[in-house]
Amino acid sequence: MDYQSIINEIAEEVFPLLGDGKVANYIPALAGVNPKQFAMTLTLFDGTQYSVGKADTLFSIQSISKVFTFTLALKFYGTDLYKRIGLEPSGNPFNSLVQLEYEKGKPRNPFINAGAINVTDALINHYGNDETAYEEVLEFIRAISDDKTIDSSDVVAISEMEHGFRNLALANLMKSFNNLDNKVEDVVGTYFKHCAIEMNTKMLSRAMLYLSNDGVDPVTGQIYITASQSKRINAVMLTCGHYDASGDFAFNVGLPGKSGVGGGIVAVVPEVMGICVWSPGLNANGNSLAGTKALELFTTKTGLSIF
Ligand code: GLU
What we know:
Helix content is 47%, strand content 11%. By secondary structure, it is α+β, with helices and mostly antiparallel strands. Strand 7 (264-269) and strand 8 form a beta hairpin. The two termini are 19 Å apart. The relative contact order is 0.20. The mean pLDDT is 96. The structure holds glutamic acid.
């Protein structure tokens, strides 16, 4: 398949949509991003990459980090992790408090904020302290991306904490139900540092390869997780990766994927490739507007959906 021509065509087709969405504006560091940007990268199992647009531009990965923290927590805790976090789609916005109250402090899944904060708490338990939990997640991301330069933005992380009232509320609510072990500020602070990691579409599509290949990096042969764990993560990405628009994404794109409010979306084509698309303008559900359309066009043009 001529992947380069296909993604060039997609870039042209989504061009009129750039600027239609709304850039995340809950912190100044994200509100200043130019919405009229677009990039897409495909990474195949031999490491070959096809890119279009601003594929070298770094952006805030935000909730895409939830895939990586969930991976590590599942690796260390196995099915015990499900005692503290559920696996069902929430049907609610990513930062909703209401459902968490009804469900006695047990988050619906690891990809809504409460779930990812809870996963971070489990990782702090595993690594012994918040600093190490942050560093080890960063090291894992560097390893799966095969790029040691990846880092977190202090400006974004600090700004998140200054405006993080709702996330702190989610953590406090879980703590009140005895479903959070460490100090609220430490857990939320570490969660924000993971969200503030900056990557480009080349790095993120490379980072998806282990999930396209049953937990094993096809380029280096490194085994990160079991095939069964990889299957579970892909399943949760498919059902919960786009908040309350997860059904819509499965319907229109048909791939496991995870979005972030920085405008990035990662997707997995099992046995074939990792994908990342980025465009900062978001739709009403907080997912990249042009990015979602680009992935829909991709599976339509290539037939590479899981269905
Ligand atoms: N840092 C963001 C928050 O917790 C992440 C949300 C997202 O990317 O969807 O509000």
